[in-house]
Amino acid sequence: MSAILRLESLSKQFVKDDVGIVALRDLTLGIEEAGFVTVLGRSGCGKSTMLNLLAGLIPPSSGTVTYRGEPILRPRPEIGYLTQSDTLMPWRDVRRNIEMPMEIKGVPAPRRRERAAELVERVGLQGFERHYPRELSGGMRRRVSLARMLVGDPETLLLDEPFGALDAQLRTDLQAELLRLWEGSGQTVVFVTHDIEEALLLGDRVVVLGRLGRVVLDRKTDIPRPRAADEMRVDPGFVALHKEMTAALAEGARS
Ligand SMILES: Nc1ncnc2c1ncn2[C@@H]1O[C@H](COP(=O)(O)OP(=O)(O)OP(=O)(O)O)[C@@H](O)[C@H]1O
């Protein structure tokens, strides 16, 4: 397997009030280029810590994280990261939030405008360019965050429960939009969730993490796309995978 991202014997320990908290212990995982991998795990098993390490936001306590064979020591422009909570700037409107990564890179204003307009269209926010985050719904804010992540054309996308706080219908819509944006793009996606159905509907490979990031199950799913949730729920193959994931999550919580 040619892994674009590789975690090798990775451990992460935090220190809080002089007490060590182990978040990940000895995690080894390779992520293939252009694939859609979902990482499934209960709350607290170290999923966000793993993404923060992949994003180069925090250093490992031991072990290595590499991207195309190079150690990840700081955030890289090739890797986009969509965190669980909103990090939009409240004082910037939609367009200027989307333009922000380009501003940091020093892209000239006309090019920024043009690129932001493309992204606004891709995520379906036409007409809202001059709105501020507080004037948008939760789903729209997620779209802005998605657009801001995509604006620099990252090769790899890290998404941390990006649609967790949304209602079921909106979540389904945004999942479909994400797949539409990803399909044929050649981008590598690592999508973290604690929802089994979401993991199976989106990923081609599901990695189930247990306590301290232990890999309990690592499974290629081979479910043909498109995958409609209502059809999948009655599909025997999907139901069997769902059961397998449920058992893996339960096992991960035990040990
Ligand atoms: N900055 C930090 N300082 C101290 N402890 C931390 C820090 N970040 C994470 N932890 C601890 O590391 C463990 C793993 O946390 P992490 O956020 O990675 O889990 P998670 O699987 O993403 O959880 P959730 O699904 O609830 O977001 C937890 O015990 C958490 O309290």
From TrEMBL:
Which Gene3D superfamilies does the protein's record reference?
Answer: P-loop containing nucleotide triphosphate hydrolases (3.40.50.300)
Arranged from A to Z, the UniProt key words for this protein are:
ATP-binding, Nucleotide-binding, Transport
InterPro entries found in the cross-reference section: AAA+_ATPase, ABC_transporter-like_ATP-bd, ABC_transporter-like_CS, ABC_transporter_ATP-bind, P-loop_NTPase
Alphabetized GO MF terms = ATP binding; ATP hydrolysis activity
Among SMART domains, the record links this protein to: AAA
> Where's the ABC transporter domain?
5-236
One matching Pfam family is ABC_tran
Keyword Zinc listed: no
Output this protein's name: ABC transporter ATP-binding protein
Please name the source species. Nonomuraea deserti
